[in-house]
Amino acid sequence: MIPVQRPYLGKEELEAVHKVFNTRWLGFGSTTKEFEEKLCRFLGARYIVAVNTGTSALHIALAALDLQPGDEVIVPSLTFVASVQAILAAGARPVFCDVYADTLNMDTRDALRRVTQHTRVIMPVHYGGLACEMDDLLPFARERKIWIVEDAAHAFGSNYKGRKVGTLGDVTCFSFDPIKNITCGEGGAVATDNDEIANRIIPKRILGIDNDTWSRYRNERNWFYEVTVQGYRYHLSNINAAIGLEQLKRFDAFKARKHAIAQRYDEAFQGIKGMTLLTHNWVETFPFFYIVRVLNKQRDKLMKYLKENGIGTGVHYIPNHIQPLFADNRVSLPITEQAFDEIVTLPLYYEMTDAEVELVISHILHFFKTADLRTDSSP
């Protein structure tokens, strides 16, 4: 089976983890600090706080903003549930907005229409690695003192108008889980240039301990500590940071290979009757996944056909506003709901061979070539 996504890990990552094992300092320490410093240089961000997951990054970023019950966070419904669970964990209320049909990114016009006196945060999600239209959001938010917290779980290494994602809003949250653009095995990071926000986040990521960070960065354990704020056990371990450091060295190769595959898909699928391609900007985007829209209620049939032929697919994502947990926040989001019926994620990963790419393409072309022979439009 050709998977939808798969991480690449080599002997260099294994050797890096072995070095950490030999130090016997496996948790939060000097390797984590080195990873944070490398990320700062890579992104051009003033502060990076490395954490254990992308979800933790979102939660701790929102928690640092001191949200109160009744405060609202505007977020697209078409995102992984982690985005919304982080909002709930921070004590706020999610307000769902629609997406653009051609990119599936936040519809910024719809988002801004949903701003009320209770809106504290707008959370753009850079879907698939393509940066949202931040120029629509930033001036509006600054004028009204609304925070911009970016969910950039898909967008590590992407740019927006020449600027790296991670240097745009007030806070940017990344994920380094197994299938992200680079992986730490599990991990995440918060990027910000805001001194006050950074100083709130840093103690929160290690149980609210305010004066122990630097000793841990030196792989030392200080018996004395002070707990000054509510915090969480969200720190990134040296083991995971070691993997991330090696993955950073592979960044250019990862990006180039995924670009080549995505562009080959674009070329092969142009003009297929029954399929719509999303709008891409490969100059500035590091693609996280590759999604097409399948029309005429043929999506599930295509997925079944590809599975039967050894090709994995996915659906990213089930809209949150139709999930049982968020029934009280249910709204009509017509573009999101239509997209959910049509989107399918095709295989895209670094180790995918040219032969595997062409196999995916040939099966999809065959499916649509024979589509007119299928008269039953039911799933």
Question: How would you characterize this protein structure?
Answer:
The longest helix is centred in the last third of the chain and has 19 residues, at 251-269. Helix 2 runs parallel beside helix 9, helix 3 packs parallel to helix 4 and helix 10 packs parallel to helix 13 (354-369). By secondary structure, the protein is an alpha/beta fold. Strands 1-9-8-5-4-2-3 form a 7-stranded mixed β-sheet, with helices on both faces. A 3-stranded antiparallel β-sheet has the order 10-11-12. Helices cover 38% and strands 13% of the residues. The protein has helices at 11-23, 30-43, 54-63, 81-89, 108-113, 134-144, 195-204, 213-217, 238-249, 251-269, 299-308, 334-342, 354-369; strands at 47-51, 72-76, 93-97, 119-122, 147-151, 159-160, 163-164, 171-175, 188-192, 275-277, 290-294, 343-346. It starts with 10 loop residues before the first helix and ends in a 10-residue tail after the last helix. It has 13 helices and 12 strands.
Summed up, the helix count is 13
User: Secondary-structure element sequence?
Assistant: HHEHEHEHEHEEEEEHHHHEEHHEH
Overall geometry: globular
- Give the N-to-C terminal Cα separation: 23 Å
Beta fraction: 5-15%
Helix/strand/pairing category: alpha/beta
Instruction: List the strand order in the largest sheet.
Output: 1-9-8-5-4-2-3
Let me know the largest β-sheet.
7 strands, mixed
In quaternary terms, these chains amount to single chain
Q: What's the total number of strands?
A: 12
Q: Which regions have little confidence, pLDDT < 50, spanning 5+ residues?
A: 373-379
Estimated helix fraction: 25-40%
Global Rg: 21 Å
Kindly state the mean pLDDT as a whole number? 95
